[in-house]
Each structure stands twice: as C-alpha cells, then as structure tokens.
Design a protein that fits this description.
heterodimer, A: 446 residues, alpha/beta, UDP-N-acetylmuramoyl-L-alanine:D-glutamate ligase, Protein-Tyrosine Phosphatase, Chain A, 2 domains, 9-stranded mixed β-sheet, globular, B: 216 residues, Rossmann fold, 7-stranded mixed β-sheet, 6-stranded mixed β-sheet, 13 strands, 33% strand
Chain lengths: 446, 216
Amino acid sequence: MRMFFAVLLCRLLRFIGTMFGRGSSLPGLAALKIYPNVLAKVKYPPAVIAVTGSNGKTSTVEMAAHVLSSLGKKVIYNREGSNQTAGAASLILSNCTLTGRVKGDVILLETDERYAKHIFKYFSPTHFVITNLLRDQLTRNGHPEWVYASILPAIPKDTVLVLNADDPLVSMFSSAADKTVWFGMDKQPFSTKENTGVYDDGKYCPRCKSPMEYEYRHFNHIGSYRCTSCGHKKADTDYTVTNADLKNAIMTVNGKYDIKLSFSSIYNIYNILACFAVCSLAGANESAIAENISSYSLTNGRILRFTLGESEGVFLIAKHENSVSYDSALRYIADSGEKCAVMIIVDSVSRRYQTGETSWLWDVNFSLLKSENIEHIYLSGKHADDLSVRFSYTDIDPALISVIPDIDEMTQTAGHAGHDMLYAVTCFSDKDKFLKNTEKTTASAT
Amino acid sequence: MKLLHLLYDFCDLYGEYGNILALERALKSKTDVTADRMPLTALSGELDFSEYDFIYIGSATERNLHTALEFLRVYKQPLKDALDKGTVILATGNAFELFGKSITDSNGKELAGLGFFDYYSVESDERIVTDEKAIFNKTEEPVIGFINKCSNIYGITSPMFTASEGTGNNPDDKGEGIISGSFYGTHIIGPLLIRNPKIAEYFAELISRTQAPDAV
C-alpha cells in the first residue's frame, strides 16, 4: 500500500513540477519521506546500468539512451542535474506502475560519484560503469583517491563492474565485485610514452605507491601501465578501441565495428567506447550499435560555430576545475593547425557554488598554446588577472597576450582584430556570457 | 641560493608547485637562485638537506601523505639538522602535519610524525572545504586562499595566520598553521605565494637575510 502512495505522490508532484517547469528531485524526495525503503521494493527491469566517474558520465548515458531507444528498447534514464538519491527516486518511481514495477527494459543512471553509496544502499545495479577518475572539482571532491574511497562502498558484490582498464585508479575497483568487464584503447598514433600534463597522477601505483611504468599513454595517467613492484597493470580488454584515426574522424571497436566521429577528441572516443559497452551489455546487437552511434554522433555531437565581428569562430567547452578537460580543448586548438586567436574566459569558477578557488589553473597545461598557429590569446572574465599570472609562468610570448577582464569588451576587441579564426574556451557557467555577444550561432559537424 | 621542492611528484595536489616558482621569481631580482625538484624515488642513501636555504613541501592525498611520512622518517635527523642550521621550511596543505607529533588516520590508527613539534593531527571522513581570509601574523598583511582538508590540528600556540573567514587549525581555533623558528606550516592549499605576492616577498627577504652571514 505504501508503494502505491509513494508512486502516486511521486507522479503527482512530477506532473505539477512539469507544469511549473520545476525541479526533478522534489517528487523523489517526497516519496522517500513517506516510504524511505521504496527503492528497495521496486521491481527492476533486467538491465539497471549505473554510470559514474569524473568525465564522460552525461555523454555516455545520453548516447546509450539514444542508441538503445532507437534499437527498440524502452529506456529510462536521468538527465544531468538529477544524479543524486532523490533524483534517482524521482526517475524510477515516476516510471513505475502503481504496484511498483518499472515500466521499461533498461534503466540508465548517471550517478554522482559522491552519492552512489547512498543510492545503491537500496538496490543493486546489474552493471556499474566507471569511466575514469581525474582531478575534477577538487573544491568539493578533495582529490581522485578521495572519490575512489567514496565510490568503493557503493559497489555491490553481485554487480558486474564495467571498468576503464586504461585508468590505474579505476582498475582498482575490480576486486570489489565478482565480475569485471574491461574496456580500453590500444596504442594509437597519438599515444605518447611520456606524460604530457603539468602533473602526473600515473607516476606511482595507486595500490602500493611504487613507481609505475607506461608502455604508452593516451592522456594524463590513462594508458597502458604496470607497477614495478606489485604488478598492478592494465587488464586485457573485452571492449577495445583497436583503431582511432583522429584525422579521418573514425574509430574501430574490437577490430570490426567502425564508428564515425563528429568531434575528433580522445575523450569523445572513450565516451563512445563506454557507450558501446553499455549497449552491448544491455543486449543490443553490436553492428547495430555501431551504426546507431555513428548517426547519433553526426547529428548530436556537433561543434558550436559562431560569427563575431568579422571573424568566424568555434566554441569549445572546457570545464573549470577540470584540468584534463582544459588540456583537451587547448590540445584540440593547437592540433588543428589553423591560424587563429584563442579567447579564454574564467568568470564564475562554478555554476553550483561560489568560490574564488583558482589553484586548478596551475594544473592546466596552458603551454599547449605555445603553437605556431596561435597568433593571439585573450584572457577574460573576473579571473583574467589570475589567468594572466598563470600565463606569465609559461613560455608563451607576453606580446601575444591581451588581458581584458570585461567579457563584452574582450569579444568586441577580438571580433574586430582581423583574426582569420577564433576559438572560445570556457565552461558551462560562463558560456552564455560569451555567446550573447556572437551572431549566427550554428551547430554543425566537423 | 638553493631552493628545494621536496617530493614534488608525490605531494603534488592543487598546483602548489606555483609556490616554488613564485619564490624563485621573487628571489631572482636579488640573487642567483636554483630550485631543485626531489622526487620520492630520490629519498635513498645519505642526503644532506642543510645545503638548501629553503625547503618546500605541498599537499598530498592522505595515502600519499602517510607513505611520504614513512620515507621522510628515515631522514628525520638530516631535516632537523637543516632546520636547526637556519634552513627555512614551508609546508602547505596536509604536508605540514608531517612535522608534528602524530597523524591519526580516519580509522583511528595513529602514525608517529617527524616529531619536530608537539602538535598532532586527526583525519576524518569529512572534508573541510572553504575559501579562507586571514592575517599573516608576522607582518599583519591580509592573505587570501583556500582550504581543502579532512583533518583538524591541535596543540599549536604560534599560528602562521589568524583566520577572519574560513577555518583555523580546528573548529575552536582561529589560529591557522604554525610558525616555529624558521618552520612555517599552513593548511592553505594551492599556490599561496602566487596569490599573495607579499608573502612571497616576505620569504624572499627572510631567506636572503638568513643566508647573508655566510655569503659575506
């Protein structure tokens, strides 16, 4: 009976919420109030897949939801922003019958790293995907090992772990469950022997703290590693990127499934790989998955182009407080080889909380912008001066740098400086402050 | 002038290598300066730390901190000798806990510290995360920074800072960090000396003064 009321209340509040365009977690919160154990009593579909990790959760879940839906499965999944317990309750209960049976074939749950242990107190996902553990929002996450320790108690012994074999810290989760499915990428032309970041989170073994050796790295500590002491090493992979051709925007999974890329970045390739694994484990046909990801990628994974003054430009998201995300955007610009100017905007560090914390700027490898093709760099936003100091410690010629804190003024200047091409790099929190100054914004494939 | 960034590759969170860069820059206008970076793997055999005018060590994950402690314990005496001879030591983030009497981890296990000072640290499962505004007790200069820790420190009577916003060494203490002789410790993370050029200047002056008698 309590189930009946919990589901009813959740649906009702969700309906009212939709009318007012309000919050997605409130209905779940209310349902949990009247029936705290409700998530343990629900009858789940055969596939309940949780996805967590520092980067790529949202992309992986959205892509997998699209692919599985177009392959005829009824998918229930959460959108960004509702990845905590109440959000999961809202999602699950509002898709339940009044007797508590979930009306769907697959549940995909993007799960916040810190909340997983609270959510999975009540039920076990059939599969638990962990994409990577990187330095991300350290103001609330402490550091990657802290996040590791926070996720660990969330893993039920009977779940199937789906782990990124290329991440030495993520690989440590393997012993928490009986079964692990591994995904990873073979050595590629862009792989390097040495670390290319400012810091090296792969230098010492996460298990025993002895030095590690890398056969190759794809970025930061992601690659093929082996501990010189305890033998912790990259596992053999079940889902493998056997070929990744950034130039021709194509990747191959398990030697036979070609997938077209709309955005040639290593991070995108990992998201697609994780998505492929999820869909395959949810029972979809692998050729069909590859075909579907290709078409999804070409229609959704688009690049945002804009016109600013006399110049054309491309907008790249780089998450503040996430050096890997920044390095990725900066590397993309340097690798493009196009003559261009780059605008970097740091105004609000986070859209979720107020902080003046800028130490993450020192984890970003801004020296990547010391590249033949980059003619000028504009630093803007409330933290333009912090950026300026950071750049003064790179070997980039100061004559190439303009510091203009006011974003409107900076975009005016950059738009009329006669640059062939502009790149804008900033986070979701500052995206609109920039885009409102631009014209003819369009999304298109590469 | 010789600077050392101790365990630069192991106690390396929050871009704190910026501290040594800022100091190097502040000193360059005054004197010749070299900065060595010492990795964890270099802690073997005999080492003399007293050749350095300044030693810096920064924040680590808790597990790295505990491992660093095992390694540094072997070099307790050479480090103490350097400090006694006037080498200035700055430890930021949880690295400053290393030099106290003990660190108790979140499971309640007590690890013996280097024991240079009587304070002790207690880690927990909760992080204390806050923007910090404080006064540098040596010069009364205001400083800004950020604290991101999971420990409280007890038993300090001569703090480096007095917190006006944020947190002190423990919830009942406005005092943050420690100054004792030429040892400076603070839980303010990130490139403190970059964000607060006057503190960088303070250390540059301090080291120049300390070195002066030998230099003549």
